[in-house]
Each structure stands twice: as structure tokens, then as C-alpha cells.
Fold this protein.
Amino acid sequence: MTLEVDIKKRLNGFTLDVAFSAGAGVTALLGASGSGKSMTLRCIAGVEKPDEGRIVLDGRVLFDSKTKIDLPPQKRRVGYLFQRYALFPNMTVLQNIAAGLSLEKDAAVRREKQSSLLRRFHLEGLEARYPRELSGGQMQRVALCRMLAGEPEAVLLDEPFAALDSYLRWQLEREVRTTLAEFSGVSLLVSHDRGEVYRMSERVCVLNTGKSEPVVGTRTLFERPMTLQSALISGCKNCAAAQIDADGNVWVPAWNLKLACPPADGRAVTHVGVRAHYILPAAPDTENAALCRITDVTDDVFSRVLTLMPPGAQAPLRVELGKEDAKGFFVGGEAWFALPKEAVMLLGDAEA
Amino acid sequence: MQELFGILESLDFSPLWISLKTGLVATVLCFFLGIWTARWVMRMGKRPKALVDGLLTLPMVLPPTVAGFFLLLIFSMRRPVGEFLYATFSIKVVQSWLGCIVAASVIAFPLMYRNARAAFEQVDIELIYAGRTLGMSERRIFWRVVLPSAGPGVVSGTILTFARALGEYGATSMLAGNIAGKTGTISQRIAMVIQNGDYATAGVWVAVILIISFGIVFLMNVFADSRLKNVKKW
């Protein structure tokens, strides 16, 4: 079961240009808001039309601008979970679920499926309720149930947790994860939240103002991002232009630092990235250490964020330390900090 | 008091039934036509939409007599369309109950069309998308998702249409005339009896129209209030 997408669509301000292939399991589309993630999902579902390109699901052509194939959403067998669930407010839970069985013509089969779905999603007893009488979690279960009722071959999840507060979110995320684990088709999760993507998906495709990057394993994206864009979207706080020297070290003009780094293996390196929590206080003779001036100390919820200026630097470094570890540092002070060699990520440009 | 009973006893109630019948038929016509037109106009591009919307709204802003004049131009027996309708289908619009319906429908139509369109344009598009991805047919989505969602707007449009059709005077008097027992609606009866100086009978009919019209608007407000629980006062 694979979903192949290669589409272009002109939007306000930029052109959506997305190409990726997703197999069974959860693939995430990660990008900032307004990067065209939701539009991509809508094109796959068939409620929006790409300007050109091709969408193929398990060998079935859903859309092809060359051969003028454009299956209506009703015939695509693609489920869609909306951010605010889009439950029909005038229908009961049971009627909402029945709407998901629209394609099933046999009434007896439909009734049987309904009751087994109600059991599976723990919705027994709620059949006669209207969406406004449900809690957030119940609403999500109804939406999931309705989406899977028609046995789609792919499901699209459009920022399903964005509207929830963090406590409820954790629990609902787990429920969705369990449901998707049992689903044999292709799942696409759209999100701007890197934590959510890390917890929920196996592979990820980064979207950067409409342009997609190659699909990579989710762990890989966070441990070894290959491009500046993926480093930024995966939450790397320190990124700067850089070049590899002849001796294999990397020279970062903005920080006025020359850093030992993992081998570049012939890749074109344009930037480096160092995650804020990998930079640590160090002894003066440590590798990649510099005597930095502390220009700011900000208390975060469970950590303390220091802003450092290496000698002669134009751009600061952000360091995240545990509250205990950060005790001795004050604004205006100077201290030695090291950027461990294995934490230096060599980045290319997405266009390259 | 004695006088009032006297008037009621001798009153010809036909205007009430003619007005109610006309209002009902015109409302049913406008309901389907208005909804269909609203959908049609919504799908148009910006410029054609402005043009067509303007034309469709004209009967609401023009004096009804102007609409009546145009209707006469079309349906008069001495003109091609009127002549054709009578010769081929024996349909007579001028000086007939059909004329009452046509006049009332044309005048009341913009109320239905505009309210329906405003209501449709507020429907959450994600609900429609959801219906499509779930495999619901477009027709089913319209009747089961869009209409219930746009319900309050459509209902208030329907009620206003009925109220407007019920009281129509200008276009009706020009197209259908005031034939007692046939095209004589309440508003035409009021004008007629006042011309004859019979203020008592006029008063009775005015009271009838007042009660019906106020009742309709009152009901509509009660209905709308129960639907809009979250409206804040400001």
C-alpha cells in the first residue's frame, strides 16, 4: 500500500510543489503554519484541485493532470480527520457514523458495521447524543470512527490536536496512535508541532513554503537533519552559515568559531546547527570550547536559557541548561562553554 | 360593539382566503426557486455575481408598481408572451388568481434568495468537505448537511417571504386587478373600502393584517432566539 503524490498548485504568495511517497504506517508532513500542509491534504482528498501533477493510491490513479483523471472525493477512499472534527451538528453520534457508511448500500450490513464500530470506539451509550453534548475526547473518537467506517485506504489527519490543551492532548494523542497502529493503510499526519511528529510518525517530509524535502525517518530528522530547513523545523535553536576548511574543521563566521566536526563525507555544507541543550559549561582546554560573555538569562518552565556571545561573534548562541546547572551564571559574566564535536550538525541547503 | 358584530356578520371573508392561498403558494415557489438561485449565484465569478445579484434584488428595492408595470408588459394579452400562453396553454395571468401568485412571488422572491444565500455562505465548508470524503452524494450533502446548518437563515427567509407575499399590493393590483372573490386580496380590499369611505370595514381588515404580520415576526423572533443561545448583549 503506497500513496504517491507529485503535485503543483499556485497559492496566494507561493507555489505548492510537493512530491513524496508514503507507505503503510504514519508519515508526517511537518512545516510552519502557512507552508501548504493542509492544502496538500485537501488535494489528496480531492476537495481541492492541484494545477498539475499526479496522485496515485495503491496503483489507483486519483488525479492525473496529463490524462485528465480527477476522481471525486466520494470515490477516492481517502479518510479525512479535520482539526475541529467537522462532526455534523444536526446529526446524532449514530447518524454521524452512518454518514461514514454512505458507500455501503446493504442496510443490514450497515447496521452490523455500525454496532461493531460503536463497540470498537467505546461509543456505546452515546449513540443518541449530539456532537455539542460530547467531550473533546468523545468528539475525536466519533470523528475517527466515522472516518474509518468507510474502510478508507488512506487517512489524512489535519493538525488533529492543535485546538486542545496539553493535558487532554496527551491522552487523545495516545488514542489516535493506538487507532492508527491498527490501521493497515497509509496515514498522513499534518502538524507544525515537532514533538507530536516525533511521537506519532515513523517517517517525515518537511514542507518549506510549499516545497517538499525528501522523506526521511523521523528519528533521523531529529538526530541528523541534512538541511538548514529541517534543522530549523526540528527545533534547532543555533544555526549559522559555515564552510568546511581544508583540515576538515568547520569555520562559522557569525560565531567567530572554528569547530571540530564529524566528517562531511563530500556533502555540500552551507550551514551548521547545534541544539541548545547540547552546549555545556566546560573546562578551558576542552575541544570546541570558547570563553563566552553571557548577555541574557531567561527562566523557562523547567530550564534556564542563556544567551552567549563567543569572543568576536556577531550572532549569539542559545544554551538550555537545567535550573541546577545554570545556577552560577549571570548576565555580564564570562564562562567557558563547549560545543561537543558530535553535536555539530553539518547542513546543506534544501535547494541543492 | 353592536356595530362591529354587524360588520363581521356581513363581512365577505374571501380576501382572507385569497391572501392566505396566494401567500402560501408564492412562498412554496419562492422557497425552491430562491434556494436553487442562491446556489447558482454562489458558484459564479465575482463580476457576473454582482450583476445577477443586482438584477435579482431589484424587485425588493423598486416600487412594486414598477414591477407590476414590467409584469404587465410581459403577460398582457396584447403582447407576445401573454398571447402565446393563452393561445397554447389557455393560461391567463392578467386579471386572474395566477396573476396574484406571479406578482406576490416576484416581489417576495429577493427576500428568500438573499436570506438563503447569506445562510449558505456561512455554512462551515469543512462540513461539506467531510461529507464528500465520507462518500455522501452532493444531493445528500445539500439536504442533510447544508440545509440543516443554514436552517435558521432559510427559515427566517421563508417566513419573511410569506409575510411579504401576504401583504403585496402594488404589483398585484396592476397585474391581477381587484376582482372580488377571485383576485381581491386583503390589501386591495382595504384600499377599496377606504375609497368608499367605509372606515369600519377597513379597520377590521387592518386588524387582521396586523395580527397575522405581527404574529409572524413574533414567532420568527422566538424561533431565532432559541437557536442563537450564544449571542451576547452589547
